[in-house]
């Protein structure tokens, strides 16, 4: 009885904000979160503490000592252990009523459609740092019709006041988001479908790329600070919670943004045509009448 009381108590303070209907909506949420590092771990915990009904965690990495400055599950006692297993155990201890699935698997771009079919997900959260895998997940999630949320790059940054939320196509100053945007545009994924967390702060440069003995891609090592990945993760969780509680309002807002963006693009295209026509007229007027042939 005491155990049941403690489990139910996790919703009491949240219900003051969201009401009983909001709690029920959260309990119906089934989130797929890929990448459980500094950003993903904090996002997952915030979602479970808020009261989502189910969450699937996917990653294929182990805790290293260098993770301890920013990742929830990075402790001296967990170094060398699978991140998804450690995070799943921690989350189960936070909220025993949440159904938690841990997938310790390195997903490739080709795996994304089958991953999305594993369960009846309601939201997809991308916390991957590889552009190729990130764009594959985002493309598949949008084309499957899932509300989709992504993290930009938290590394190399120090100023928490410069973290923003917005559409992927509105991001600025974020190289990771820019590369994803360019690739997704080629694949037909446009404005108004992917909600992003990003920073407009100019990042400090990483160390030179280091060859990976495990056969993975060579990568530069970004500097990181304790609070920036967690802030990105909490922003992501906040966006998911707000969408889960009132999806109609969230989707209406996105649809309005898409309509506004389309109108702006049409206006820009018409302006370019007018400018081109005016330029052609000026060029013709500047040429003067044709010269008379010599007599």
Largest β-sheet summary:
7 strands, mixed
**CATH fold name of the largest domain:** Rossmann fold
Strand content: 5-15%
H/E element sequence: HHEHEHEHEHEEHEHH
What is the number of independent domains?
Answer: 2
Low-confidence stretches: none
Task: Estimate the global geometry from the Cα principal axes.
Answer: globular
Gyration radius, rounded: 24 Å
The residue-averaged pLDDT reads: 92
Task: Tally the beta strands.
Answer: 7
CATH classification, class level of the largest domain: Alpha Beta
CATH 2nd-level architecture of the largest domain? 3-Layer(aba) Sandwich
Pfam families: ThiF
Domain THIF-type NAD/FAD binding fold: 11-169
Protein name: THIF-type NAD/FAD binding fold domain-containing protein
Region (Disordered): 250-295
Task: Tag the structure with descriptive keywords.
tRNA threonylcarbamoyladenosine dehydratase; Ubiquitin-activating_enz; alpha/beta; ubiquitin-like modifier activating enzyme activity; Rossmann fold; 7 strands
């Amino acid at each position: 009885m005491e155990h049941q009381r403690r489990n139910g108590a996790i919703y009491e303070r949240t219900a003051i904000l969201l009401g009983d209907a909001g709690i029920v909506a959260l309990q119906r949420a089934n989130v797929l979160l890929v990448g459980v590092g500094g950003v993903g771990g904090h996002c997952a915990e915030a979602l479970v503490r808020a009261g989502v009904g189910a969450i699937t965690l996917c990653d294929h990495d182990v805790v290293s000592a260098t993770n301890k400055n920013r990742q929830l599950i990075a402790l001296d006692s967990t170094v060398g252990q699978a991140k998804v297993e450690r995070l799943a155990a921690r989350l189960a201890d936070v909220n025993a009523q949440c159904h938690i699935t841990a997938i310790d698997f390195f997903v490739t771009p080709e795996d994304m459609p089958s991953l999305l079919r594993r369960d009846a997900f309601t939201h997809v959260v991308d916390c991957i740092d590889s552009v190729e895998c990130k764009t594959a997940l985002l493309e598949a999630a949008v084309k499957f019709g899932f509300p989709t949320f992504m993290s930009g790059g938290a590394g190399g940054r120090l100023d928490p006041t410069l973290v923003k939320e917005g559409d992927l196509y509105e991001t600025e100053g974020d190289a990771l988001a820019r590369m994803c945007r360019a690739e997704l545009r080629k694949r037909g994924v446009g404005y108004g479908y992917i909600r992003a967390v990003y920073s407009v702060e100019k990042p400090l440069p990483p160390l030179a790329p280091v060859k990976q003995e495990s056969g993975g891609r060579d990568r530069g090592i970004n500097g990181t600070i304790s609070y920036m990945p967690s802030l990105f993760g909490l922003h992501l969780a906040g966006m998911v919670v707000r969408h889960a509680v009132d999806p109609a309002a969230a989707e209406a807002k996105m649809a309005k943004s898409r309509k506004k963006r389309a109108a702006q693009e049409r206006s820009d295209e018409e302006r370019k045509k007018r400018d081109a026509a005016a330029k052609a007229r000026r060029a013709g007027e500047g040429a003067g009448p044709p010269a008379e042939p010599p007599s």
